[in-house]
Specification:
alpha+beta, Glutaredoxin, Antioxidant, Horf6, Chain A, domain 2, 2 domains, five-stranded mixed β-sheet, three-stranded antiparallel β-sheet, 7 helices, elongated
């Protein structure tokens, strides 16, 4: 029996793969280019919660594009099922899926990314979200059970926070949204502790906790 594939973790390089999608065969690393990516799995085509999720991803596709982010979905359904469901969603919800859906019948990609959780189901993928940066590093991953839909506001907030932290060498506090103050990295030397005393641009709570506007 083959050894189980280790599940990717934050900081790992996103596994590369070639797969059949609704937009033709693609190799992930070439398709990604210099973009951020949200790779997400759904349990099955023609299911109610998944229909609401995929249609909402489509409605927000321009918002993700403005964040330099591509979308790509996956389930262990056939390409024919994907295409039929895509047409069905266009008819019943008046939305067109502009991003590719991976047809992962052999579960190759789902296994690479740890999307099948036998305790939840051994036959479908759970609701997984991978946020992958342009260097193909996994920056965040979120798992949802089969019966709870994802919060796309949070996924957008998460990408914005990651990009803001990267660009400004900072961190973001609880419930942070764009425009809020960010966290100044904690000091690592006595000199840095002293430099924080009386810093006019910082909102100081203690030597290790300071906020600032960007």
């Amino acid at each position: 029996m083959d050894e189980p594939q280790p599940m990717p973790r934050i900081g790992d390089t996103a596994p590369d793969f070639t797969a059949v999608t609704t937009q033709g065969e693609l190799t992930f690393s070439k398709w990604q280019g210099d973009k951020w990516v949200v790779l997400f799995s759904h349990p099955a085509d023609f299911t109610p919660v998944c229909s609401t999720e995929l249609s909402e991803f489509a409605r927000r596709s321009e918002s993700f594009a403005r964040m330099n982010t591509k979308l790509i979905g996956l389930s262990i359904d056939s390409i024919h099922s994907h295409l039929a469901w895509r047409e069905n969603l266009k008819q019943i919800l008046d939305v067109e899926l502009t991003y590719p859906l991976i047809a992962d019948l052999d579960t190759k990609v789902a296994s690479l990314y740890g999307m099948i959780h036998p305790g939840e189901s051994s036959t479908v993928t759970v609701r997984t979200v991978f946020v992958i940066d342009p260097k193909r590093t996994i920056r965040a991953l979120v798992y949802y059970p089969l019966n709870v839909g994802r919060n796309l506001d949070e996924i957008e907030r998460l990408i914005t926070a990651l990009q803001t932290a990267d660009a400004n060498a900072c961190a973001t506090p609880v419930n942070w949204t764009k425009g809020d103050k960010v966290i100044v990295p904690p000091p690592k030397t006595e000199q840095e502790v002293a430099e924080r005393e009386g810093h006019k641009e910082y909102e100081r709570f203690d030597f290790y906790l300071n906020k600032r506007l960007l």
